Amino acid sequence: PTAPPRRSICELPDELISQIAAGEVVERPASVVRELVDNALDAGAGQIQLKLLAGGVRSLVVEDDGCGIPDSELPLAIKRHATSKIRSLDELEAVATMGFRGEALAAVSSVAELALVSRFDGAPHAWRLDARSGELSPAARSRGTSVEVRELFFNTPARRKFLKSEGTELGHCLEALRRHALARPDVGFTVWHEGKLVDQWRASSLAQRVAEVLNEDFVSQSREVMAEVGPLRIHGRVGLPEAARSRADMQYVYVNGRYVRDKLIAHAIRSAFDDVLHGQRQPSYVLFIDITPELVDVNVHPTKIEVRFRDGREIHQQVRRAVVAALALSRTSDGVTDDL
Ligand code: ADP
Ligand code: MG
């Protein structure tokens, strides 16, 4: 085969760089939900609202009552690699915020129409930044930030074609919100679709939040997990073997507050069930693993859905042990529900 003629090396325009980078983090409306809710939580929000039109494709708005962004920094917020969350490698290694890459808003603005409306703590009024025109104008809202995302992938039609039906995209958006809601029962969440209230979860305890977000039965059919070993704290709820499901659709693992998919942890939990879970039955759980940030690398995946532990064996062993202990308790408790 003959190679195509060589073309000279050129630097890509910024816009295209952002669109390529966006491919890694923005796959569908649910990815935008994940990024915007991360930002709202990092801003210290106590209430977060998600408003969707057409499964989030036509319009996706996240409103929070967090600290806001000063007008002088609004243009920076949508610039690539611009962040208020880290300043140095040391800070990256100890990062406690959900975000740190300074990429999400830039990525979203390269594949959708984006506007930020924000009122910084103590500012006399809000400001609105239209990402496309760069225009800043006075606006009205209380303290906090609204991020408005319209017509996702309008300028990348090939990617827009990959989107599924409105109902499917809505489902993914709701699942993204559930992941956050389970991790932050202290924060209130409201979600609207086409002007109709879909879900509302008021700030409450973990058990209450789990009951509302997953289902009432999960709480009575699960046991509390609680273990502390050195720099490691494992807590949450794990479903009893009887409550195992045919699908792995109720498995939530968080490392330092961030939802992750981790084979090692999934395996550790599964192995705790050992002989009591038959065949393809899937355990259900909501498990939080908190560990000194220096002992886990969160910068291995653009969406941060994967992490790398410095000592995976130790994590595996402790998670397994914690879940075994929780399940053993249930066998001697005559099925009596734990105190929530
Ligand atoms: P990152 O979250 O990694 O810093 P983003 O692109 O998501 O990058 O956001 C860029 C910056 O914009 C953040 O560092 C933060 O300072 C600011 N920002 C974004 N969303 C909000 C929000 N909802 N409230 C306050 N500040 C925000
Ligand atoms: Mg962010």
From TrEMBL:
Q: This protein's superkingdom?
A: Bacteria
Where along the sequence do coiled-coil regions lie?
A: none
Q: Where is the DNA mismatch repair protein S5 domain?
A: 210-328
- Function, please? This protein is involved in the repair of mismatches in DNA. It is required for dam-dependent methyl-directed DNA mismatch repair. May act as a 'molecular matchmaker', a protein that promotes the formation of a stable complex between two or more DNA-binding proteins in an ATP-dependent manner without itself being part of a final effector complex.
Query: What's the family?
Result: Belongs to the DNA mismatch repair MutL/HexB family.
Q: What is this protein called?
A: DNA mismatch repair protein MutL
Taxonomic placement: Bacteria, Pseudomonadati, Pseudomonadota, Betaproteobacteria, Burkholderiales
Q: Which gene encodes it?
A: mutL
